[in-house]
Amino acid sequence: MYQLNSIKSLKDNYIWILSNSDNQAVIIDPGEAGPVINYIKKNKLFPLGILLTHHHIDHTGGVCELKAQYQHIDVYGPSEIDLPINYLINQDKVCIGNFSFDVIAVPGHTLGHLAYYCYPYLFSGDTLFSAGCGRVFEGTYQQMLDSLEHLKRLPDDTLICAGHEYTLSNLAFASHILPNDKNIKSYIDLISKKSKTLPSILSKEKQINLFLRCHEHQLQNKFNFNNELDLFVFFRSQKDIF
Q: What's the pLDDT tens digit per position in 118-139?
């Protein structure tokens, strides 16, 4: 059984660390090295590898220093990352020691964005947040919607380990769009005083995350759309200016 831990980094990033009973660990999206090195020393971990979801510096900034500190460590990620790492191209799994991750292509935020699934943990980078999703920077809205649909098909007990602590701001937007939604209201009450809201659980996200609810005909009708994509574009464009 694995143990999940997170390190807050930079302004609002999370660096995730998955460890096993032998104190071996995999690091996901180290935006900076110092907090990771301190955590590893404090907890006497042996880092085996690093997984990167996409090329943005707040997710990759600590790689070179960590690689210099732990020369045995293997680094994996998409080919969009301009670093000397192991590129995951057309691979559906990556194994690091006894850790095994499903590799899921989730273009939209960036074209090469990957997510990693090691039951029950989903490391979703900047694709899926609690109550939200990433901005569409490089891909298309259709690509992002398809990526979210892919992640939505994972088991309901999947734990969403996103790259940022954006939950309260995402819920503020959701509440602005759907002020009478009971699930959104109750979730705001539940987490409003928490500084850390992740990981969240997929079953709850399906209730409170507008970007996972674009298939709902009731919502499409409410905003005068007749398909999932148009509603998604509306939600995402409104969130961009909220």
A: 999 999 999 999 999 999 999 9
Q: 3.40.190.10, 3.30.160.40, 3.60.15.10, 1.10.10.60: which CATH number matches 3-240?
A: 3.60.15.10
Write down the domain spans for the chain: 3-240
Give, for 162, the enclosing helix (H) or strand (E).
Answer: strand 159-162
- DSSP secondary-structure letter at 211? G
Please, are residues 86 and 63 in contact by the beta-carbon 8 Å criterion? no
pLDDT 10s digits, 154-208: 999 999 999 999 999 999 999 999 999 999 999 999 998 888 999 999 999 999 9
pTM higher than the cut 0.90: yes
What does the CA dihedral 10, 241, 128, 164 come to, rounded to 10 degrees? 10
Residue pair 168/197 in contact (Cβ under 8 Å)? The answer is yes
